[in-house]
Amino acid sequence: MTIWNVSTSAELVSALAAAQPLDEIVLADGNYGDLNIGGRQYADYVTIRGGHAAVFTGAWNPPTTSAAFVRLDGFTLDGGLQLSGLSGAVTHHIEVLNLAIGPVVGNDVMQIMGGVHDVLIQGCKVRDSISTDPLAHPDLIQMFRDFDTDATPANITIRRNLFWDDPGTGVIGAQGVFVSDGSWTNGYSGIVIEENVISPVLINALTLQSGLAGCALRNNLITSGRIWIVNNQALGNAGTVVEGNVSPDLLDDGGGATVQNNYTGEVSGYLPNLVDGSTLDQYRPAPGSPIEPYLGWLIAILDGQPQVPPMDFLTIIAVRVVSGPVTAIIVGTPGQPDHDIEIAPNNPNYVGAAIVEYDAQDTEGFTSTATVTVNFTGTPPVLADDNVGAPKGTTVRPAVLVNDVA
Question: Does 227 fall in a domain?
């Protein structure tokens, strides 16, 4: 295995061309423009990995080109993600892990269309379609077939992601995960959507049409809208299981889906930490609430794993002491509450000011500088005068500290 360290778009393109199966391409923080994986067909996974401060304007493969065995891990896609297999092209074995995806202006945040199969989308934060068309119905993820060849996405797993649409942006909100317009003859197979938090603005939070084999919608938390099992092609949904979900509403058009052990009813009222919904920690259910038994998977994440970082977080990248006898270091994890500067005096008795300068970078790679001034204060002791008498020629210990205050 070779590790390719890159810091520019040109270096990334060269690394993708030279990479062999199981290689890793590690991104330095910065802006890389578009990520085009079209034509990258490896025999085993090649991983492109970076922190959230490594930013692309989007990732895609041109609709009529194929891609295979590409893993995307950890970075930011400001312009969304599109995986395509049209006009006979096939895109397969793609993993999308721990990415911050969106917002996208005027369209779906993610699209999976045509001959795409064996895809894993896990641990991502997918947010905010900012539509400028009041007649549009954008989605946080949309899947659909190739209308010319009838090729339909298959074996797609969408697990443990946060899907959130900001109600304050655009002229119309977004739907959640929308799996529609599958093959007219074969429908969908192997679509597994599980353990996600889905918080859309429009009513259709989680939609599946014609799940004919190996499809499951399970253990998802829907904060608004509904789960919709669509049967408008008369193909049925006999290969679909819908279970363990929490949703305000569930609409089953029929067609033989197995629908069992779901909670429907009030949801947001049982989420006491819910403010705007943009971070995963806001979705912890109230202890003893009727939705708590359904959300053990989410409670386990919140208790044992880092929270999903907010989309527009800052990373402290440098710190310098300007004045004062102090040491300053960067601590914590970017995007987490513990990310900060730690300033300590070199002399624990120092009283006075210290100035520290730091640089912070946003998820788009822009950097600014600011200072923090710390005033180390102390209260001087309060000493009282003493007056004692003693015989001539004696040695005296007058206990001068007895009436003093430290």
Answer: no
> Closest Cα to residue 144, out of 109, 184, 105?
184
CA-based torsion, 2, 7, 9, 10: positive or negative: negative
With tokens 């004045």, the residue in question is: 323
Look at residue 234 and tell me whether its pLDDT is greater than 70: yes
Q: Tell me how crowded residue 122 is: count the other CB atoms within 10 A of its CB.
A: 16
The model's pTM:
0.75
How many independent structural domains does the chain possess? Answer: 1
Contact 248, 267 (CB under 8 A): yes
Whether 162 is in a domain gets the answer no
Using CA of residue 190, residue 194, residue 200, residue 202, what is the dihedral sign? positive
Residue 387 has phi, psi (to 5 degrees) of: -140, 110
pLDDT tens per residue across span 17-38: 999 999 999 999 999 999 999 9
Q: Which two tokens stand for residue 281?
A: 């920690």
Residues 6+ apart with CB under 8 A from 340: 316, 330, 331, 332
The predicted-structure confidence for 258-277, as pLDDT tens digits, reads as follows 999 999 999 999 999 999 99
Q: Is residue 53 a part of any domain in this protein?
A: no
pLDDT tens-digit map of 140-179: 999 999 989 989 999 999 999 999 999 888 888 899 999 9
Average pLDDT over the chain reads 89
**292 in a structural domain:** no
Q: In what order do the strands lie in the sheet with 162-164?
A: 30-31, 54-56, 76-77, 100-101, 125-127, 162-164, 197-199, 221-222, 246-247, 263-264
Quick one: pLDDT band at residue 365, thresholds 50, 70, 90?
low
Bridge-based pairing state of the strands 315-323 and 352-361 = antiparallel
The predicted model gives 50-73 an average pLDDT of 93
- Give the residue numbers spanning the domain of 398: 313-406
Q: Is 391 exposed, middle or buried (0-12, 13-18, 19+ CB in 10 A)?
A: exposed
Closest alpha carbon to 102 in 138, 121, 130: 130
DSSP state for residue 284 in the 8-state scheme: P
